[in-house]
Fold Neprosin PEP catalytic domain-containing protein.
Amino acid sequence: MLKFINFPLWIIFSILSFGILTHEIIVDETISNANASIIKTIESDNDEIIDCYSIHKQHAFSNPLFRNHPIQMRPSSYPQGVQPKEQKKFELTQTWHKYGLCPEGTVPIRSKHLHPSSSDDVTTTNEYASITPIGENFQGAQATINLWKPLIEQPREFSASQIWISTGDKEAIEAGLEVNKNLYGDEKPRIFVYWTVTDHFNSTGCYNIQCRGFVQTTSKISLDFIFNNLSIFRGTQYSADFIMFKVKTSSNIQGIVVGYWPHFLFKQLSTKATRIDFGGQISNTKPNMRHTKTQIGSVKVFDGNYEAKVPGTVFMIQSNTNCYGLSLGQTDSSGIIFYYGGPGFSSTCQ
């Protein structure tokens, strides 16, 4: 059995409304015009720069929909059976912390926004290994994701482990870990959020804060940061806990909150989600006319009664069983444990 060493991290995306993945990027032009909102700049390793933005002047608030929107610093309540770990145990450090911290009242934003190269001459296929609980009224989801660094063969390929929350074919939000050299410029696993509205990624879809919607609320965590500790095959294992849920009302509660999507960004997701997926996804560019070598590196759902429950019956989704497998493990009060992944190109995966 894998032993998960205590790596105290709760990433809480508290969703005041409800905010599956093709990873096409729409970058908002207002990002380049926000220098006046930067309170402090921190230079980190590998030429990475963290800008500390005034929390009230972060990119989301240049969206006219946010006019007169009061920032919700913390969710008012958590689903029954779910609480964040004690704040005194929150020991997560990012690489840039060695060189300084963002002051209270600001949010850290990585300033190196990469623009993906054109994909006109590249054909990609997305492949999945995931599970989907049966149900039509979900208020959120929780998952523990192993911190792993999968191999990425081609620059335009990615590998992600994540939670998808959606209305099936329209609106969706997601969060997890991803290796995406085309987006971040390296092959290191990073936290990400992604969301789309109304058209299931046909013309909308955005990572992190690259367009105006997701509101950051913490000065301690930067989205798309690099993990200092990663799991080693047959060695020490590290994991991170992710929780996303719809908030009933707004006030204060103890805990670490990364941010949220306001209800007015969505239509159907403002009341409920109709589908939740847990698992992994890769993109396959079929280098040299063969399958890529790119690898895929305990879950609960929150029902309509706002209770955290272990999923009952689940569908197993495997788009290419010759390349990426999925196996259900034990199920107990802590949730379902399942394993997914694969090496990509091999004797059975062509």
